[in-house]
Design brief:
Shape: globular
Number of strands: 10
Order of helices and strands: EEHEHEHEHEHEHEEHHE
Strand content: 15-25%
Number of helices: 8
Radius of gyration: 19 Å
Bound molecules: pyridoxal-5'-phosphate
Structural class: alpha/beta
CATH architecture of the largest domain: 3-Layer(aba) Sandwich
Largest sheet: 6 strands, mixed
Number of domains: 2
Helix content: 25-40%
Length: about 325
């Protein structure tokens, strides 16, 4: 049956077995390919859900502008949803954003302003909060870090899709950005089967893996429910890059950088199991990272040592 609009194409992403990453017989690793969403990332789910709920509650009406401090995947997803539904979107960007991302936002019709002097997303968040606070009738700010509909989107869609396709999940691994994916999917999987382990892939302090957040920086996103987590594994950026390349070489899957970190953690988790299934959620495709030249560089072997801050179940 045809879809009524592009918004109906959000979600229902494929779960694909990674046979060549399985460490032993009886242990399988599966990847949930969120890069298959319309704008190429998992964030299409939360953008669609946060806007839908805001429309229903009356927080968002056609006279308002959607305002969000983001240069990343969430901005691009909100831009798609806003364009499809006919809303204005204003993104507040830090100065350091790459030209590709600004171009993509503008292509979808989003307006862009820079938080002057803002070196980080935190500065852009502060500026957007000031603007929304000063003119609450003019703006609706979804604010993914503090919006419960972010994890709820995953509780209602991503989690059920995984169990529909694979009824037994022993370990679930995802990257930690806002914590929405881990909280929402983790809650759902544990409600269905309390034995399921939920593991966060986190970046090494000071070592950027785009999309992921080091909680040691002091900001704990309000939507993250740490009680859902059974462990967190620290991954360095070179291992993430090497793993993204290995995924392309072994399985012909083109994923983004945070997926390398997640897959590395999934492989380590699989090594700890006697038997069972590990699901790794790969948040985006590789397109937005082509300019890094990642796929033409040589990173050697993926390092096997465990980094400081790692906690396993
Ligand atoms: C590429 C990428 N990977 C992983 C994540 C983490 O997802 P979440 O915000 O649900 O924790 C994000 C978003 O923050 C992302 O953009």
């Amino acid at each position: 049956m045809p879809f009524a609009s592009i918004l109906d194409a959000v979600g229902n992403t494929p779960l694909v077995r990674l046979a060549r990453f399985s460490p032993k017989s009886g242990v399988e690793i599966y990847a949930k390919l969120e890069g298959q969403n319309p704008t190429g990332s998992v964030k299409d789910r939360i953008a669609l859900y946060m806007i839908g709920v805001a429309e229903e509650s009356g927080d968002l009406s056609s006279d308002k502008t959607i305002l969000e401090p983001t240069s990343g995947n969430t901005g691009i997803s909100l831009a798609m949803v806003a364009r499809a539904k006919g809303y204005r979107l204003l993104c507040v960007l830090p100065d350091i954003v790459t030209p590709e991302r600004e171009q993509l936002l503008r292509a979808f019709g989003a307006e862009v302003i820079y938080a002057s002097g803002a070196q980080s997303t935190n500065d852009a968040i502060f500026k957007a909060q000031q603007m929304a606070g000063a003119e609450p009738d003019k703006y609706f700010m979804p604010y993914q870090y503090g919006n419960e509909n972010n994890p709820r989107a995953h509780y209602e869609t991503t989690g059920p899709e995984i169990l529909r396709d694979l009824p037994q999940v022993d370990v679930f691994v995802a990257g930690l950005g806002t914590g929405g994916t881990l909280t929402g999917v983790g809650r759902y999987l544990k409600e269905q089967s309390p034995e399921t382990k939920v593991i966060a892939a986190v970046p090494h302090p000071g070592d950027l893996v785009q999309g992921l957040r080091d909680l040691g920086e002091g900001f704990i996103p309000p939507v993250l429910d740490e009680s859902v987590l059974d462990g967190r594994v620290v991954v360095d950026s070179l291992s993430s890059f090497a793993m993204v390349k290995e995924l392309m070489e072994k399985e012909a899957i083109f994923a983004g950088i945070s997926s390398g970190a997640v897959l590395k953690v999934a492989v380590r988790a699989a090594q700890r199991l006697e038997s069972g299934n590990v699901v790794a959620l790969l948040a985006d495709g590789g397109w937005k990272y082509l300019s890094t030249g990642l796929w033409s560089k040589d990173y050697g072997e993926v390092k096997e040592e465990e980094l400081q801050g790692t906690v396993w179940w």
